[in-house]
Design brief:
- The protein is mainly α.
- It has a domain at 23-96.
- 58% of the residues lie in helices and 0% in strands.
- Helix 2 (50-63) runs antiparallel to helix 3 (66-72) and helix 3 (66-72) packs across helix 5.
- The chain is rod-shaped and about 100 Å long.
- The termini are far apart.
Length: 106
C-alpha cells in the first residue's frame, strides 16, 4: 500500500506577490527624502545659526544660569585674553547688574 502523495510544503504556496507600483515607490522616496531634509535642518543646520545661539543665550540668562550663558559665547582666544572676562567674572557681573536682560515693567 502506498500512502497518498501530499504536495511539497512551499513557503510561497497560497501567497500572492504584489508588485509595488512605480507611483507608490516614487511617493515613498519623496517622503523619505523630505523626512531626511527636515531632520538635517532641525538637528544639523539650525543649531549652527545665529538665531539659535541667541535663543540659547537668552534662555540661560532668563533662567539665571549665567555659567551656561557664558558657555554659549564663542570668542577667539586673543579676544578673551584682551577682554579678560571669565565664566566666574561674567556670572558676578550679571548678578551685580541684576541680570543680563533688563526687566521692563510699566
Amino acid at each position: 500500500m502506498t500512502e497518498p502523495l501530499e504536495p511539497p510544503l512551499d513557503s510561497d504556496a497560497g501567497v500572492s506577490r504584489r508588485r509595488v507600483s512605480p507611483f507608490a515607490a516614487i511617493v515613498l522616496v519623496v517622503a523619505l527624502a523630505a523626512a531626511a531634509g527636515l531632520l538635517y535642518l532641525r538637528y544639523l543646520w539650525y543649531p549652527r545659526t545665529p538665531q539659535y545661539a541667541v535663543r540659547q543665550f537668552l534662555q540661560y540668562c532668563r533662567s539665571g544660569d549665567y555659567a551656561g550663558a557664558y558657555r554659549t559665547i564663542t570668542l577667539p582666544q586673543f579676544l578673551v585674553k584682551q577682554v579678560g572676562i571669565t565664566e566666574k567674572g561674567f556670572t558676578g557681573m550679571a548678578k551685580m547688574a541684576g541680570g543680563v536682560i533688563p526687566n521692563l515693567t510699566d
